[in-house]
Specification:
Number of helices: 21
Order of helices and strands: EHHHEEHHHHHHHHHHHHHHHHHH
Structural class: mainly alpha
Number of strands: 3
Shape: globular
Largest sheet: 3 strands, antiparallel
Length: 507
């Protein structure tokens, strides 16, 4: 069975055009050669973003199934196909990937001065891998793209990171690779038992492996839990974030962590519905522990970048809580909050990068009074900080409110789901505590350190990047219905599929 629309293939592999141009580019010498390398990478990501917008315009919001399918036989003897498709669960992940990559490449211009060609080649290769993860509908193809993302991020951290970059890169690679091997075994079992690796066919034939649901669920779940990361699989994240270059941290927070939450929705829920309902309370408890633990540890940090890193553990706990509420409100909130976290945390890491480039320190105690010397930068940072803590009118509030609404009605959590909601709400309060504490220490008060008096305010390039983040932070906050419209049909179909396959009664 072959079907080929082409646009998703073009979207996925368009960054390869930039890679080829960079590899063929004769550096020569001087600043002009470096500038050309940077602009080749940026223009490539801009065109990729434009293609993703064309996909969104073409997308039919009222259809629940896969759209714009590209499918062809790849290894027919093994039931493996080249199979790409998009639906309401993945479309916002595609937008987020192309948007964040465009800004991350732009943010790299003043920061990456050594081995620039290799740096941007790895960035574009990473974009291919991430797009493939969100579009692949064949488990073998998905696994290939999943593993592809590990290599460029390993080198981005290991070569262009901070002092402990090699340790952080190796830790990131080993953690994620270990989980991936368990998932590979489960993928092989599914493919062999059904003689196909195509996800729709596996969902339709899930009765053939119903007896092994729990084990298969755990094999996938561990891989995705490490990537999210869920407590207690989170220890690689602060090191990776802290040591990664600014763009690496933006991509890691903005997109790579969402590969884990997306994996739960795309694979665990429809393939193993009964196991999803069975493990939902346990995962919800781990999510709540992560929400509170991440917030508490963030408050204790003296390194502003590690504070933002631990905030990701807390915020993504909300996403996991929404997913395993196993209802429409929870899942829609989880998808939107994944986008929100990518925007807000990506922007926070960019902010840290801006001040670190000037002061070469991330120690919170080294700052103070930054508002007086960088007023425009400080105002924009305050809005982004408020979005991360879920202030009404900004994006974070919409996602968290919808998730909490879903968890209140989470039948999979047992007869008293409100208890889960009550504990999760503590995380909302704690987020305000550690984020406002950080903002006060860095931006408010007197300028006690003479080095801070030398700081310059935001330049045009930095302003363009921050305003790009803020556009969607505010847009989602005041008009979220347009974002929900894209996902409603697909989420409804997913909830029906899980309810039909779960032995636990779900709404």
């Amino acid at each position: 069975m072959s079907e080929f629309n082409g646009i998703l293939t073009v979207l996925t592999f368009f960054p390869a055009v930039g890679i080829v141009l960079l590899l063929l580019f004769n550096r020569g010498g001087g600043e002009s050669a470096e500038r050309n390398i940077r602009w080749i990478a940026l223009v490539t990501t801009i065109f990729t973003f434009v293609i993703s917008l064309i996909v969104m315009i073409t997308f039919d919001k009222n259809r629940a199934g896969l759209q714009m399918i590209d499918r062809a036989q790849w290894i027919p003897q093994l039931g493996i196909s080249y199979f790409l498709g998009i639906d309401g669960i993945s479309i916002w992940m595609i937008f987020l990937t192309t948007f964040i990559m465009m800004l991350a490449v732009g943010a790299s211009f003043p920061l990456i001065e050594q081995q620039t060609k290799q740096y941007y080649v790895f960035m574009l290769l990473l974009e291919i891998g991430m797009l493939g993860v969100f579009l692949a509908q064949d488990l073998f193809l998905f696994y290939v793209f999943w593993e592809v993302t590990l290599v460029p991020m390993y080198f981005l951290i290991g070569i262009w990171g901070s002092k402990r970059r090699v340790y952080a890169a190796l830790k990131f690679f080993l953690y994620t690779m270990a989980g991936s091997l368990l998932m590979l075994i489960a993928i092989l079992y599914l493919g062999v038992s059904n003689e196909t690796f195509a996800l729709p066919a596996l969902i339709a034939g899930r009765d053939t492996f119903a007896g092994a649901q729990n084990i298969l669920f755990l094999a996938f779940a561990i891989a995705f839990a490490i990537k999210v990361p869920i407590f207690p699989f989170h220890s690689w994240l602060p090191d990776a974030h802290t040591e990664a270059p600014t763009a690496g941290s933006i991509i890691l927070a903005g997109v790579l962590l969402k590969m884990g939450t997306y994996g739960f929705m795309r694979f665990n829920l429809p393939l193993f519905p009964d196991a999803s309902a069975y493990f939902a309370p346990a995962i919800a408890i781990l999510a709540i522990i992560g929400i509170i633990y991440g917030a508490a540890v963030a408050f204790a940090q003296t390194d502003v970048k590690r504070l933002v890193a631990y905030s990701s553990v807390s915020h993504l706990g909300f996403v996991m809580l929404g997913i395993f509420a196993l209802n429409e409100a929870g899942l829609e909130g989880a998808i939107l909050q994944g986008v929100n976290h990518g925007l807000s945390s990506g922007a926070l890491f960019f902010i840290v990068g801006v001040i670190y480039a000037q002061r070469h320190t991330r120690d919170i105690a080294a700052y103070g009074g930054v508002w007086k010397v960088m007023p425009v930068f400080s105002v924009l940072t305050l809005i982004i900080t408020l979005s991360s803590m879920g202030l009404p009118g900004l994006n974070g509030f919409v996602g968290e409110f919808t998730i909490l609404l879903g968890s209140m009605d989470g039948a999979a959590y047992g007869p008293t789901p409100w208890i889960y909601t009550a504990f999760a709400t503590v995380g909302v309060i704690l987020a305000a505590v550690y984020l406002l504490w950080m903002f006060q220490r860095v931006f408010m008060g007197p300028v006690d350190n003479p080095e801070n008096k030398k700081l310059r305010d935001i330049n045009k390039g930095e302003l363009a990047i921050m305003l790009s983040f803020l556009l969607f932070i505010v847009w989602i906050g005041i008009a979220p219905s347009g974002y929900f419209d894209f996902m409603t049909a697909s989420v409804s179909q997913l909830v029906e599929s899980v309810s039909a396959g779960a032995m636990v009664a779900l709404p």
